[in-house]
From TrEMBL:
Monomer and homodimer. The keyword tRNA-binding does not apply. This is Nuclear nucleic acid-binding protein C1D. GO terms for biological process: maturation of 5.8S rRNA; regulation of gene expression. It holds the Pfam family Sas10_Utp3. The gene is LOC115699576. It comes from the Eukaryota. Keywords: Cytoplasm, DNA-binding, Nucleus, RNA-binding, rRNA processing. Plays a role in the recruitment of the exosome to pre-rRNA to mediate the 3'-5' end processing of the 5.8S rRNA. Belongs to the C1D family. GO terms for cellular component: cytoplasm; exosome (RNase complex); nucleolus. The keyword Isomerase does not apply. It is found in: Cytoplasm; Nucleus, Nucleolus; Nucleus.
Amino acid sequence: MEVDGRESSAVPYSVTDSVNTSLVHLQDVQTHFLHFLSLSDPDVLAQMPPLQRAHSLLLLAKATTTLFALKLRCNGVDPDDHPVKSELERLSLYQNKLERFIDLNKGSNSFH
C-alpha cells in the first residue's frame, strides 16, 4: 500500500527516522568514546597533572555509568530503580569536589 508516494508499513516513518538518527549519534559516541578510552592508558595518565588525571578518570567513569544507565533504559529498566542511580549520585558528588579543587588551583595560580 502506498501513501503520499511512500510505502506504508507497520512502523511509522517518524519512528524509523528517529531510530536512524539515533544510530548516527551512537556511531559518533563510539568514535569519540574510543578516542577518550585511549586517554585512560596508564602511560598517558602518568604524564598528566593530578587534577587533569582525576578529571579524566571522573569523565570516563561518568561516561561508562551513563551508557550503562542508557542500556538499562533501552531494556525497559528504570535507572532510578536500579543501583546505578547511587553510582551516578556518587560521581556527581566527586565532580563537585573536583570542581572545587580546580577552582582553588586556579585561584592559587593567579597569585604567582
